[in-house]
Amino acid sequence: MTRVMSCISSMALATALLAGTAASDAQAWSLEEAAKPYAGTEIEVVFLLRPGYEAAKEMLPEFEEKTGIKINIIDHPYENSLGEQVRDFVAQGDLDIALIDLVWIGNFAENEWIVPIEKFTSNPDLLDPELDIDDFFPLVLNAFGGWNGTIYGLPFDNYSGLLFYNRCMLEEAGFDGPPATWEELKDTYGPALTKDGKYAYALQSKRNETQSADSFARMLWPFGGSFLDAEFKSNLLSDESQTGLKFRQDLMQYMPEGIVSYDHAETVNALAQGDVAMITEWSAFYSTLTSPETSTITDCLEIAPEPTGPAGRKPALGGFSLAVASQADEDEQAAAWLFIQWVTSKANAQKYLELGGVPARQSVYQEPGVAEEYGFVDALVESWQEGVPEFRPRFAEWPQITEIVQEWGTKIMLGEVTTEEGAEEIGTRMEAVLEESGYYSGDKPLAQ
Asked: Label partner for 430 (CA 20 to 30 A): which of 5, 368, 370, 390?
């Protein structure tokens, strides 16, 4: 329903560009030589307070030593990262690299805050012949880096929703594996695991993007629902969408009290401390849950794909790309591209994985022993091959709409309004935003 599928054609274009350039002598290119004109350049980039970014920080000294380029990292919690970047771009500030959630890319691209990668892939002085753009999972490359047929960014810190569960708790309750379906999780596992101050499940639902993406959207797709229909009108009052939202309300009886205040940290910690038996969370938290320093259940932790619903398995899709900022000068843009290309490269994918990141390179997950060492790999690869590219609508107006979903999705969970009342309010306000933006007047094409 969104523009993500139109980006697939960009794969052929990008591949052709790379093939023509890489035909030259690959041995003649090196990062050190490419970076010589930019030694001493300082690059500003926003990072989040998450494991994948800590992994990149550990790798960073190698890049700086090889290139002489200084990467200045500005750490922000996720909740502040969009606003801080928007303010910087509007003010023509110092950021040289944009960190882009898949639902922000339309806003960034349409405001021309970021530069298409073609500018750099068409320059043999800057293109690493080993970039191999086809090695990125196509779904991830197009969802996170692509907009309206153009690739702007390369995938970095990418997630799939997975079912993390405490095998020991399930076995004690008489289960020999995780639930296969959402209905089974609620109707069978829920009552058996919710007792003695412990709960079957926790769904991160805090009133921010967590509410709209991790909680609200997660219950739409598996039940056949969606935010919008084919005419770009609200689909939240459809039978399928209402079934999903009502299911979430019913499932709350098997979640901890105060679940509407749980962000990622609280949800992951609840599993890590043995307070809940199951969570559906991003693959990025694997390193947190497998570290004895942060988890008490390392010997009991298991991972499976998210459960299926009546519409099939529709796991959450999330993550980011890194793109060169248009406000940077030419030297800064070149240096920024060299860093983006390096940190997302095939050559660095395994090291990034070992340090706690989740690369979007297909090849790294095919390496011998990787799937056995990292328990999330099989479920992750399945989800990236078969997931929902438009898990959240990717149009440029999503930052406005998500605030509406956050407000009324929370009210639904708290019982302040019914699922129908909340859906009607979200739909009315969502359509008002889209009408003002020109989707219904023909000023903007309906994204398909």
From this structure: 5
